[in-house]
Amino acid sequence: MRAEPDKIVSLSGEDNTAELQKYLSSLSNDQLLTVITNSALKGKNVCAVIKGIFKGSPASTSEGSTRRLALYEHLIPLCESGDLQADVVADIIGLLMLETHTLSGPSLIQLASLFVDAIKAGKKGSGKSWELFPTVLTALTACEALSYGKGELSGEEYKKQLINTLCSSRWDPQCVIHLTTMFRDVPLSSEELQFVVEKVLRMFTKLDLQEIPPLVYQLLLLSAKGCKRQVLDGIIAYFKEQDIRQEEEQKQEESLDLEVQSIPQDQLRHVEGTVILHIVFAIRLDHELGREFLKSFKTSYGDLCPFSAALLLSVARIQRYEEQVFDLLKGAIIKSFKDDQLRQGSKFLQDIVPKHCSVAQMIVDTVKNSVFGWDHVTQGLVQLGFFLMDAFGPKPGPFGKATEASGTVARTPAQLACKLGGQVLLQGFKVHEPVRGEILEQVLNRLVTKSASPVSHYLELFSDIVTSAPMILLESSCKLTETFDHLSYLPLSTVQGLLKAVQPLLKVSMSLKDALILVLRKAMFSSHLDGRKSAVTGFLLLLKNFKVLGSLASSQCSQSISSSQVQVDVHSRYNSAANEAFCLEILSSLRRCLGQQADVRLMLYEGFYDVLRRNSQLASSIMQTLFSQLKRYYEPEQDLLPPVKLEPCITAHGDQVFLQEPLAHLVSCTVQCLLFLQNMQKSASPDDSDDEEEDGYQSDLQTILESTTRRMIKSELEDFELDKSAEFSLASSVGVKNNIYAVLVMGLYEVLMEYNFNKANYSKNAFEELLELFHRYHKLSEILKEKSGKGRTPSNKTARSLLSMGFVSTLVTVLFRDNSQSREEALSVLRSSGEFQRYAVSVAIQKIQQLEESGHTDGPDGQSTEKTFRFLCDMTSVLMWRYTNSPGVVEEVARKEKRSSFSQLCLEGLLRIFSTCQQRHPDKMTQLLSTMDIADDDDDDDGKQKDGGGVSEMTYFYIRQFQRALFSQLSGAEDDFNSKEAQLLVSILSVLSRQLDPSSQQFVQMITWTVKICKETSFEDIAFSKGQLSLLFNLHVLYKSPVSLLLELCQDIHSHLGDIDQDVEVEEQSHFAIVNTKTATTAALLVLSQADRVLDEVDWLISRQKSLAASDKSDAAETTQGAAQQDPAQKAAALQLGTLLTALNELVQTALPLGNSTIALLKALTRTYTILTTLVKYYIQVCGGKHGALPARFEKLVKLSGSHLTPQCYAFITYAQSGEFSGGSDDKKKKRKTEVNVAASAKLLRDTKAIPNLIFSIEQYEKYLITLSKKAKVNLMQYMKLSTSRDFRINAATLDAALREQDDSQEPAESQDAEETQEPKHKKRRQ
Fold it and tell me: What is the maximal distance between C-alpha atoms in the chain?
């Protein structure tokens, strides 16, 4: 009998259920299934047929139930076959879902097994029928009891078993997305969800990269059920791994020149970008997901990677997370830099903690990766860049001055973070066109609005932007023009930086140049002095950079522009003739400045030389300007003295006198320009084809300068009204006038000395004249020092010298190093004066000091980095030679004091040079040192040194020179010991030792030598011992942990100062001879500061372990493994603290004198107990998670602190409060004794909060120990002794003495009793 679908449908429609059942019973299952298959393939009435069959197959009967199951088992594969139309399949699945709940338990089990087997076998098909699986699982859950093996399980339990089986089996990669989608509709417990999430995350690596974004999308939807943190962590971990693999493959490619990429980089980046968008979209909809995401980074930045950094920056676009994200990134970046700094400065930490990945590098990588269409990350990067630069830029010091010198290498964490911000913005500007306008606008806004704060970091960024992309900036020229409008209101340093940066653009853009000139002309007539200074700065910069035809090419030209377009533009639009007219016009504007304040004129004089050097064709105009200005103050009558008019150089305003014309700078500028032109003419063509006009002013100037020299030598100080009787007090107008005159005259002497030296050509007579000029200068200088020193400490500093850097270099070199026979007679004139030699070296040191502080010096070439470094090299060579060798001509008065002080000058110069080079040219230190080897021609090691080549070897070669010098100082008698020279030598050794590689043999030798000196030197010189011990600590900490060293030093200090209990005799110990009775207190302060550093390291280590423990706790499977990893760090922290406690135990029993050392010890003890408390809290946290036994070393540490240190702390507190110092004499004057006691008591009273702080930290430590004892079930309090109750203790003797003192204070004379009461305090203070 053939089944007819129409009959089934009609019977179903007639509500004739009995007839329908009878008809269906007459058909076999195969016949029914054939009907359904045919109907489904035709797409006709299939749903009606299925409904009819369901209607005629009641689930309550076994026949109906079997038929229903057969129907399901047939329809599911049919739907998967792909033979049916999509709408038919959807209708069928919908019908089956509606009827699933009517199936019996066994039927549901069979259906579920069908799905599980299909998944295991990897039979995916179209995946449409999988929508049915969640319904089957839901129906299973509702079943109360299901047979399982020989027993029974509840539906819930059976579902759990099923999911477990499913997640444990192998999945076909093609099925993963469908399965993840399917699980969204399955009701899952948290444990089941975890199974599923773990399985899906494991499958990431087996999927094709393009399938990751849709899977992530489904996984995020699934995370609405829970496991949010796990989902996010898994996604981030996957991409972190892919990035690492990509990087390694890239390195391999570079080294092997082969293509080994398993995944193309652009493909990976695009997938990452899509995934980031999916996650951000999910976080927008589910704030719980956002909170979990941020929480994972709050504990530690170790989980950060370029992908997660990009994700964070994308999340920052959601307003509610913006502040949190940037605070989090800022904290991670600064913490990463601080951790790096701490780790680099300690060998102890380097051995314990592996080097972690740099957060800064991740941020830079994120910028690189964002090129691949990550527009959603770009905005966050820009915000981050400015956030870092605003937060960590240089801070304003007093009066708005920058506290950090510009141009130094970034070293502190804050400087490095600021530099990172600049890098992010610069790279962002280069690669992302949409944000360029915003970056430029923000930078310019900050330059204008942050006038009260230093903006050097923004100027550097702006300069880099101009250099890297000049043509792009021209598109935003209107923004630059707007900024120019504010020039006259900005600080001078900002204007200089801005105009220097914008120079390349002015050569290209006519409109920009015209706008600037207009602004500068207005500024020239500004009512603000700074505005007029800005105008001069701007005009001088323009003169330097717009070349006139025929000018010499200069290596010091303005910034080069990389763009070829710009070069073409410059040559096509501008020509030298136009430049000449332009420059002459500017010069005429600048001439107006010669009638303005001294500050404005000064800028002009300081700038003219650079203009002339770069634009030599302007010589005639510049020299004429200077010549006419000079003639105003020159006395043409040859017989009149002095040769200059000083009265017009000053101006009075009421009672106040001001400098109007910086005459010495005017003459200096004229001389420098004249010498430059003469040198240029000599080196140019040999035939004299110069203009007559040029010859005219040059010869006139030479005549004036020669006449001035002759008459200045003849002039006495009385001719300038500056003799010894003159008043130099700055309180009166006459004194101020005389001071101004004196400075001008001294400046003139210096300028004339330089001019005459250059013109002398090593003639003996000329050098005698030069020495005469110096004697006049020196005489006036001495009077000024003597007079200005009255009423305050006399100043030994030389006034700011007008000698040029090049001249100082030449002068010092010829004085000490020139051995040529032809010059010897002339040079012997200069060498005969010790004062002149000292003056030359002190001016050189002054120039070096300027370089150290600001990176440039006054005068010609002072702004050129190349020439200033050359100057440093020359000075290094000369000073080193002068220090290590006796001078060729022995000084007339060869007194030891003079010799020593000259050596000190040389050492001071060398120390400043090494510091400057390390600060400003760290990569050129080897180059600097290599210039010194000529100083040691006679040394046997010299040839060996040159061959060595290594930085450490070269540095150590010179270190040995200074070590020998120090050793010879220490080898003599203590009376011959020159403390200042020894201190300078130690400082130089300290600076040079920073160049040594801590892993090198030379570094070990350096430490060995330093330890030897400390052990064998017993001079009672506090300053020297302080320097030497500081050097020892700084070296030792890079070699190994210094705690054992601290212990030995503490034992020495205890031995020399005695015990707080006078009845106790301390065992005599002397590990280090440098610690003696006189230097012990200083040594104690150094030891305590070093102990503080050790405590910092231990504190950092414990904090790191706490964050590791927290992350371990979140992953139970890794807890034991985490504990094993933590063990070395725990052990190291305990050992450090143990040795430190022993050292402090020695120090706390020492009779330290009342004052700084006592307070420092109390603070160190407080800190120690605070860190012990932190360690106890860590073990409380660990015990709470693991219920493990406490390490034996920790128990030993507790025992050491409780039974040894704490009782001694209370004894020391009593000692510090009573002030009963041992030692001292009894017969001291009462008055002095009273003053000493009052001062000591006041000091102690101010600092007594150190005592309650210490007691509180001890009590906190004991409190947490009790908590830990309960948790770990170990009695740690057995080692603690009961604390002394000190609150209401009354010392009868002290009270009696105080009462007597109160009574006797009203009487004119003090009683003997009161004297006795105060005596111990006095003794203690003296010690």
Answer: 150
CA distance 944 to 1064: 57
Exposure string of 817-850, with b = 16+ CB inside 10 Å and e = fewer, is bbeeeebeebbebbbebbebbbbbbbbbbbbbbb
Cα dihedral 103, 105, 111, 115 sign: positive
Between 950 and 274, name the one with better pLDDT.
274
Which among 330, 443, 438, 442 is positioned nearest to 391, based on CA atoms? 330
Q: Any alpha helices (H) in 43-104, and if so which ranges?
A: 46-55, 62-80, 86-99
- On average, the pLDDT of the chain sits at 79
How crowded is the C-beta side of 63, counted as CA atoms within 13 Å?
Answer: 12
Task: Say if residue 773's pLDDT is above 90.
Answer: yes
State the DSSP H helix or E strand holding residue 152, giving kind and residue range, or none if neither. strand 151-153
Dihedral sign, Cα of residue 856, residue 858, residue 864, residue 866: negative
The identity of residue 503, as a single letter, is Q
Residue 402 — φ and ψ, nearest 5°? -70, 135
Contact 56, 49 (CB under 8 A): no
Contact 701, 670 (CB under 8 A): yes
Q: Under 8 Å CB-to-CB from 607, ≥6 apart: which residues?
A: 536, 537, 540
Estimate to the nearest angstrom the gap between the alpha carbon of 1216 and the chain centroid: 41
CB 907 within 8 A of CB 883: yes
Q: How many CB atoms lie within 10 A of CB 287?
A: 12
173, 207 in Cβ contact below 8 A?
yes
CA dist., res. 140 & res. 461, Å (int): 66
Answer whether 802's CB lies under 8 Å from 858's CB.
Answer: yes
- Tens of pLDDT, residues 370-406: 888 888 888 899 999 999 999 888 887 665 555 555 5
- Find the mean pLDDT for residues 269-280: 90
Higher per-residue pLDDT: 296 or 590? 590
Q: What is the pLDDT of residues 142-164, one digit of tens each?
A: 676 666 655 566 767 777 777 77
Q: How does residue 19 score in pLDDT terms, banded at 50, 70 and 90? A: low
- How far, in Å, CA of 1119 to CA of 1108, rounded? 10
CA–chain centroid gap for 786, Å, is: 45
Spatial CA neighbour of 606 closest among 586, 582, 588, 626: 626
Whether the Cβ atoms of residue 973 and residue 896 lie closer than 8 Å to each other: no
Using CA atoms, how far residue 29 sits from 111, 859, 1190, in Å, is: 17, 109, 71
* Res 1168 pLDDT > 90: yes
Picking from 1018, 1012, 1027, the residue whose alpha carbon sits closest to that of residue 973 is: 1018
Q: Where are the alpha helices (DSSP H) in 684-720?
A: 692-714
Nearest Cα neighbor of 1219 from 1194, 1196, 1247, 1193 is: 1247
Q: What is the DSSP letter of 206?
A: G
| Count of beta carbons in the 10 Å neighbourhood of residue 1296 | 12
Contacts of 495 (CB under 8 A, 6+ apart): 487, 534, 537, 538
DSSP secondary structure code for residue 435 in this structure: G
Higher-pLDDT residue of 1286, 1155: 1155
Contacts of 1307 (CB under 8 A, 6+ apart): none
| Cα 662 to Cα 649: distance, rounded to the nearest angstrom | 7
| CA atoms of 840 and 902, how far apart (whole Å) | 11
Q: Residue 972 gets which letter from DSSP? A: S
Angle made by CA atoms 434, 436, 442, in degrees to the nearest 5? 125
- The full DSSP string for 23-44 is HHHTS-HHHHHHHHHHHHHHTS
Q: What would the mean pLDDT of 762-769 be, rounded to a whole number?
A: 90
Extract the runs of DSSP E, i.e. beta strands, from 873-1025: none
CB 840 within 8 A of CB 706: no
Map tokens 């930290």 to a residue.
1257
Q: Round to whole Å and give the CA distance between 189 and 1327.
A: 75
Angle subtended at Cα 644 by Cα 639 and Cα 648, rounded to the nearest 5 degrees: 135
CB 292 within 8 A of CB 279: no
